[in-house]
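Async update (no meeting this week)

Hi team, since we skipped the sync, here's where things stand on the single-chain job. The sequence we agreed to prioritize is pasted below, unchanged from the tracker. I ran it this morning and attached the output directly underneath so nobody has to dig for it. Comments welcome in thread, and please keep replies under the output.
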Amino acid sequence: MIGKALLVDPSVHLFADPTGGIDVGTKYEIHVLMRKLAAQGRGILLIAALGIPYATRTLRQRREATA
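Output:
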């Protein structure tokens, strides 16, 4: 599913709970992919079942990494 979305080369990617119910190795690969897309300047919208605390922590980590 993710591969098909990448074929059209969008500037913003929507990930709706992309790591729910999959193994740890695949979760890692998906997070690496999201980081690569963000590094290319693409927008990432992540809807996570873990909710706001997870998203807030992720945004804070991103800001600290770029500061």
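Quick observations from my side:
The first strand starts at residue 12 and ends at 16.
DSSP finds three helices and two strands in the chain.
Reply here if anything looks off.
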